[in-house]
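RECORD TYPE: inverse folding
INPUT: C-alpha cells
STRUCTURE:
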C-alpha cells in the first residue's frame, strides 16, 4: 500500500489468502521483467507478441481487413 493511502487513513481489509499472496508477490519480485511477461502470457493476459488478449483489452483489435 502506498504511504499516501496509509497517511489518509485508508487500510484495506486483510487479503483472504494473505500468506499465499505474500509468497506469490515475493516470487514475482525476484523475476526479471521477461519472466513476469512470460507468466502473463501463460496466464492468458498477453499474447506472445505483447498485445493484451481480447478478454483484457479495452477495445477489441481491428481486423486487418478493415
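DESIGNED SEQUENCE:
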Amino acid at each position: 500500500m502506498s504511504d499516501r493511502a496509509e497517511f489518509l487513513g485508508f487500510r484495506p481489509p486483510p487479503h483472504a489468502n494473505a500468506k499465499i499472496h505474500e509468497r506469490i508477490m515475493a516470487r514475482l519480485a525476484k523475476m526479471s521483467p521477461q519472466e513476469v511477461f512470460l507468466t502473463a502470457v501463460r496466464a492468458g493476459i498477453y499474447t506472445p507478441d505483447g498485445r493484451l488478449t481480447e478478454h483484457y483489452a479495452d477495445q477489441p483489435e481491428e481486423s486487418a481487413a478493415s
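NOTES: Residues 14-54 form one domain.
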